[in-house]
Write a structure and sequence with these properties.
heterodimer; A: 149 residues; 87% helix; B: 188 residues; mainly alpha; Arc Repressor Mutant, subunit A; two-stranded antiparallel ribbon; 2 strands; 4% strand
Chain lengths: 149, 188
């Protein structure tokens, strides 16, 4: 193994996570290579000086721990339940507003179309009304004739 | 009373036995808290995040397929919550902090300023300086370093928690140690 490969394995060597063959190879190499030996000594010194500093927590801290977990669970349950009702009024308002604007728009469009149609065909419609009146009169004459007979 | 494995306890919890969950809390609360504490460096945050992780484990237990151990799954949740917390705080660190000097003028406080070795040595808190250096590591390097060196986990176990290859874990660890050696030059 080259020095570069050995140095990569030094951490696993420190934590004793190497198989016997690799461990023996590293030890052989360290015995002959000053550069890798220096790296190893430096690594060992650094890691030996780093140790966990756990806070000294009172017994009461651990006693209340489980209760707080359950409080969080309850919080999650209620937030899941309240998620819909919380947004429901806003969603309903948006849906209503959208519906009103869509239907209102359609109605407005239809009414405008109707007005345009009437304006364009006013004369024609007027004549049509006249024809309808004449037709009614004709029918009236027929009815009167029937009455007489 | 015979020892019951985590696997069996999880099965009981899935079947609706809440006492099983209490047992899981008792078994893993200290390790879970410690992992979060060594990642974040604050008792309050570590308490909040480890408890949140248990709450998630409880509500999502149905999704836990037991392909890994409960401990691995819980640690994965804690690591994810720590990442989320870190991202949130990183975002907050872009917001400059202001304080008022004696004359009442507003001055910007440089929260990123790092203490010099001399400052640290004068405080005579070597242990604190080391843990500070660990907490200043990039997130991925910190995760593997804390799990390996502080929590004493196996590289294979860390790889499983992070969903990474063992080679990747080793590489992060290698870089973390190099970084620490640079940061702690003059201390140790």
């Amino acid at each position: 193994m080259k020095c570069k490969d050995i140095q990569k394995e030094l951490i696993s060597y420190y934590y004793q996570e190497l198989n016997d063959a690799l461990k023996a190879e590293i030890e052989r190499h360290l015995g002959t290579c000053d550069k890798c030996m220096f790296s190893w000594e430096r690594l060992k010194t650094t890691l030996n000086n780093i140790e966990a500093k756990e806070p000294d927590l009172p017994h009461a801290f651990w006693q209340g721990y489980r209760r707080k977990v359950y409080e969080k669970i309850e919080g999650k349950k209620s937030s899941n339940l309240s998620r819909f009702p919380r947004f429901a009024p806003a969603v309903a308002a948006i849906v209503i507003a959208l519906s009103l604007s869509i239907f209102g728009g359609i109605r407005l469009y239809e009414s405008k179309q109707e007005k345009d149609f009437i304006a364009k065909n006013y004369e024609l419609m007027k004549n049509l009304e006249l024809f309808e009146d004449l037709e009614i009169l004709e029918h009236m004459e027929e009815i009167e004739a029937l009455k007489k007979t | 009373m015979a020892y019951i494995s985590d696997e069996e306890i999880v099965r009981r919890l899935k079947a609706g036995d809440d006492d099983a969950f209490n047992e899981l809390i008792e078994r893993h609360k200290k390790m879970g808290f410690s992992l979060a504490y060594n990642m974040l460096g604050s008792i309050e945050d570590a308490e909040d995040i480890s408890q949140e992780a248990f709450a998630i484990a409880y509500t999502e237990i149905g999704k836990f397929r037991q392909e890994s151990s409960f401990k691995t799954w819980l640690y994965r949740i804690i690591i994810n919550l720590c990442r989320k917390h870190y991202r949130k705080n990183k975002l907050m660190s872009f917001i400059p902090l202001y304080f008022h000097n004696k004359e009442g003028e507003e001055q910007e406080m440089d929260i990123k300023a790092e203490a010099t070795p001399e400052d640290e040595l004068s405080s005579k808190q070597l242990g604190s300086a080391i843990m500070k250096a660990v907490r200043r590591l990039p997130m991925k390097q910190k995760e593997v370093f804390v799990m390996k060196h502080i929590k004493g986990m196996k590289i294979s176990e860390i790889a499983e928690i992070l969903g990474s290859a063992e080679g990747t874990v080793k590489s992060h660890l290698f870089r973390a140690v190099n970084e620490l050696q640079k940061k702690l030059r003059g201390f140790i």
